[in-house]
Structures are given as C-alpha cells and as structure tokens.
Amino acid sequence: MDWRELDLDEITEWPIIPQLLVILLLCLCIQGAGYWFWLQPIQESIEQSKLDEISLKTTVKYKYNQVAAMPKMKDQLNELNLRYEFLSQQLPAQKELASMLSGINQVGIQNKLTFTRIDWGEKQNKTFLYKLPLNIELTGQYHDIGSFSEAMADLPRIVSLENIDIQRVSKESSTLHFRVMAYTYQFRGDHE
Predict the structure, then answer these.
(1) Which residues of 136-171 are buried (b: 16+ CB within 10 A; e: fewer)?
(2) What's the rounded Cα separation, in Å, for the pair 30 and 38?
(3) What is the per-residue pLDDT across 25-51, written as a single tens digit (0 to 9) for each?
(4) Which of 89, 138, 144, 147 is the most exposed place for a label (fewest CB within 10 A)?
(5) What's the pTM?
(6) CATH value of 93-187 in 3.30.450.20, 3.90.930.12, 3.30.830.10, 3.30.70.60
(7) CA nearest to 184, candidates 50, 84, 60, 87
C-alpha cells in the first residue's frame, strides 16, 4: 500500500491501519488541545487555590493563637492598668509641688544636711508628661548624703536623681558639697 495514494475524501475506504493511525492522531491532537486550553488553566487555578489554602491556614492558626492568648492578655492588661494607676498616683499635682519641696527640705534637715540651694527649674514638655527639674545643692557628711538619697527614694511621689556631683568643701574637711538634679513628673492636662 502506498501512503501517497490515500485521499482524505475517501478515508472510509482506506485500510484499517491507516484509519486507526489517523484516528489516533486526531485523538492526540484533541487531547493536546484539551490539555492546553482546558486542563492547564484549571491546574494553575488549583495551584493558586493550594497557595491560598496554606495562607489561610496560617492566618487561622495565628488568629487561633491570638484568641487562645486573649484571657492571658486581658489579665496582663488589667495588671498594667493597676500599675499605671499606682504610678499615676505617685505623680504630684500642681498644688502638691510646694509641699513636696518642703518634704525634701525636711528630709535633708532630718539627715543633718545644710541646703545651699533648692529650687524648681523650668518645666520640660514631654510626650504626655511634664518633666519638672529640681536643683538641689547641700553640704554634709558622706553617710548623711547617702541617707538623704535613700530617703528621697522612699518619698510618696516619684523623684529621680540625675547628674550627681559630690566634692569636698576643702581638702582638709570631711564635709562634702552635694549637687544633684532631681526630677519629678506631672501629667499634661490635655492627656489626663
């Protein structure tokens, strides 16, 4: 049989082997076109869906952990609120500044110290607080200055000591000149 003699118009009269080969070739072409135009887009969609599923599982796991931690976080928030209230009660109001200054002076006198200077500096504006500097200069013995510093920490209002400078009054004397910048804080009115 000569393949060149076969005519497509007479395909039904061809021998069985060439007919089967043409049918097989047509089936392969239809399958290739079906894969290319129908299955491949579906596979890409399935792959994208799998990636979305992984992303959603991660999100659900994260949200689940957040929900599971919610009671613990509420307890921590309550504890922080209690600490905040406790600390805010330790900040002096404007009307308490004079009595606070008097209290610091009294602590110094009780520790046998002599003040050469004690006055408020200029208010410094911070994010939600005012930082109030207090210039303190005094003279006294080393242990008395240490007791004074300890008593300052025990005051009912927050006072922090910075820029501490201790020098002898004279070379022969055991009396010291103590200069410190103390700070306390106040809530700003617009954030209360």
Answers:
(1) bebbbeeebbebbbebbeeeebebeeeeeeeeeeee
(2) 11
(3) 999 999 999 888 888 888 888 999 999
(4) 89
(5) 0.55
(6) 3.30.70.60
(7) 87
